Write a sequence for this structure.
């Protein structure tokens, strides 16, 4: 298999959308939540501008810069769920090996990033690094307004277990509503969940998490039909 083809097909999918009714979202269909905007759906737009990508859908506005989600704003409430952070302290994309060992696609590993406009509704973030290459595809679901992020990675070193797209900067005042211990609603700094990675399906019992504010919030869920292990 060609290197580029492997990179394109190796990833899972992450979808983000505003949760306008959190109580209604947590029901029997917790693993398949879609909160649709009022009225007819409208086409999303994805635009590459200099060093960042601007996303507009029927439910949200978002900006991705240097591979990081730096803005996620609800069109229903006007809230931005991402705060400021120093992106030099983090890596947008990691390769994970057994152990677990994580290898960063960061500047200290001679990383370069290229943005590619694929179409009016799709863009790609292309990583080149000492340790491997990666592609993060960005597009949207017009029927729900969700932002879909599809990370993938390649390395010539054998034993790659997974790749990880990181989201630093989530507002610390948000509550996490998640299927841990059959369901929790906790502050993000609660000792029960702080500094712990929750693997699915052992501890993370459904591939969904909600970040709740006083006005609404957003959810993150995966669309994985192959049921790969994840965290």
């Amino acid at each position: 298999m060609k290197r580029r083809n492997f990179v394109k097909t190796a990833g899972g999918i992450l979808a983000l959308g505003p949760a306008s009714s959190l109580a209604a979202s947590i029901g029997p269909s917790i693993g398949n939540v879609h909160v649709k905007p009022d009225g007819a759906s409208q086409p999303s737009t994805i635009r590459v501008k200099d060093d960042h990508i601007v996303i507009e859908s029927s439910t949200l506005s978002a900006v991705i810069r240097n591979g990081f989600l730096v803005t996620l704003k609800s069109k229903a409430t006007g809230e931005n769920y991402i705060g400021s952070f120093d992106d030099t302290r983090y890596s947008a994309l990691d390769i994970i090996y057994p152990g677990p060992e994580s290898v960063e696609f960061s500047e200290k590993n001679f990383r370069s990033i290229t943005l590619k406009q694929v179409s009016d509704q799709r863009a790609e973030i292309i990583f080149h690094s000492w340790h491997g290459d990666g592609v993060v595809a960005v597009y949207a679901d017009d029927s729900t307004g969700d932002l879909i992020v599809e990370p993938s990675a390649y390395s010539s070193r054998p034993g790659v277990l997974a790749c990880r797209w990181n989201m630093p900067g989530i507002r610390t005042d948000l509550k996490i509503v998640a299927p841990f211990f059959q369901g929790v609603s906790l502050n993000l700094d609660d000792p029960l969940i702080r500094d712990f990675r929750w693997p699915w399906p052992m501890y993370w019992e459904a591939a969904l998490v909600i970040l709740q504010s006083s006005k609404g919030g957003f959810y993150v869920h995966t669309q994985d039909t192959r049921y790969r292990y994840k965290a």
